[in-house]
Amino acid sequence: MSATVVVGCQWGDEGKGKLTDLLAREMQMVVRYQGGHNAGHTVVVNGRTFALQLLPSGVLYHHVTPVIGNGVVVDPKVLLEEMAALTAAGVDCSRLVVSGGAHLIMPYHQELDALTERYLGRNKLGTTKRGIGPAYADKSARVGIRVQDLLDPKIFREKLDVVLKEKNLILAKVYNRLPLSASDIADRYLDEYAPKLAPFIGDTVGLIGDALAAGHDVLLEGAQATFLDLDHGTYPFVTSSNPVAGGACVGAGIGPLSVTSVIGVAKAYVTRVGSGPFVTELHDETGDLLVERGREYGTNTGRRRRTGWLDAVMLRQAARLNSLSELALTKLDVLDTFETLKVCVAYESEGRRYDRMPYHQTVLHKATPVYEELPGWQADTSAATELHHLPAAAKDYVHFVSEQCGVPIKLVGVGPGRDQFVRFAS
User: Fold this and answer.
1) What is the mean pLDDT of residues 357-386?
2) Which of 197, 219, 206, 407 is nearest to 322 (CA)?
């Protein structure tokens, strides 16, 4: 049996969708193990762009069983719309299996998410306001409503009545909002969503376990990334789940000994969406150029991403947290025009050097980067398909990054297309 985890090593948007799509060619099952539709995966196939939010990237292959695991929070409206759009584009979604243990995003989650962000003002977290955080909060508080509850209208209505009484009190007393109607919500979820989703709901823990026992190759796909992890990210500017490799076991329902490899994904530079510390962030024309060349706008939100030079301190931490077997470095082509490149190899704060991520957030917020400069290659790499096609300076850059994080880089992305990559051996 073989279970491979793909995890982002920065703040998301590293290109996990493309890598998962590439790896899925050799897999029998692809499992999404956490997050919600706040994560966008863009895959370009034969010139057509597919922006996936909830569906695992493996859905694009006829031989793959795509699975939404128990660790995911599901907005049924979004899932059904995504399935319909892909079906209209000729993609078969009939093989999808959704865990009955996954939790549902409800209208009050979205309402409270947006209101909380608004009331936080300048201290807002930068969430997508799609209800992901409140849905996970209800899961932890044990008042969540799960996908399986769609199959039992009596239970669904009972659970909804209980939780909505509290939510409506909060909406009315704290935010001066009108109460939501339990009957309207129940009718929508049970009459509109449940009949369409029922054929896809199943026991994914058993399904994945059977696949591994049969010797099949299973790919576990995370959303967001290491430094958005609830426990190990730049808290509180994080997501509400655990994207790190360890979260794959919980979110998919497998034991840790089933994981045979962990592949990290990182950009050749760094981007971030929303608030939070960003040691190498660029506020100049170089940052603007990275946005322009990298088309750095959110797949789901359209928000401009913050950009900065590659941060090797982050990558070393990601390697430790995830036990990375190897690393894929994406968007190398974005750096093609630069005469000089910088890589952050350490932080400085109040006269002290940090080669590891400082545990205290005050130190991190005050830290400045210690850079090493490398020569650029100023040549087009987007057509490269073999290692010898890359300029020497480009190969040197990749080798330097690998040495800094202590993980072999085996794949380098040189464009958005499915086949725009170079096999590497660092």
Assistant:
1) 96
2) 407
**Token pair 């840790």 is at which residue?**
256
Length of the chain: 426
Both structure tokens of 161:
């009545």
Tokens of 336: 């093609």
The sign of the CA dihedral 279, 281, 282, 283 is negative
SS3 state at 352: strand
Q: What is the mean pLDDT of the chain?
A: 93
Q: Regarding beta strands 270-272 and 368-375, do their DSSP bridges make them parallel or antiparallel, or are they unpaired?
A: unpaired
From first CA to last CA, the distance across the chain in angstroms is 27
Which pair of structure tokens corresponds to residue 79?
């899932």
Of 221, 257, 222, 261, the residue nearest 241 (C-alpha): 222
Given the residues 41, 103, 109, 232, the one annotated as active site: 41
Q: What is the per-residue DSSP string for 5-43?
A: EEEESSSS-SSHHHHHHHHGGG-SEEEE-SB-TT--EEE
Structure tokens at 315: 């990558």
**CA proximity to 81, closest of 193, 189, 199:** 193
Buried b (16+ CB within 10 A) or exposed e, 108-141: bbbbbbbbbbeeeeeeebebbbbbbbbbbebbee
Residue 280 class from Cβ within 10 Å (0-12 exposed, 13-18 middle, 19+ buried)? buried
Is position 41 annotated as part of the catalytic site?
A: yes
Each residue's pLDDT tens digit, 170-194: 999 999 899 999 999 999 999 999 9
63 is catalytic: no
Helix (H) or strand (E) holding 364: helix 361-366
Closest by CA to 90, choosing from 59, 47, 66, is 59
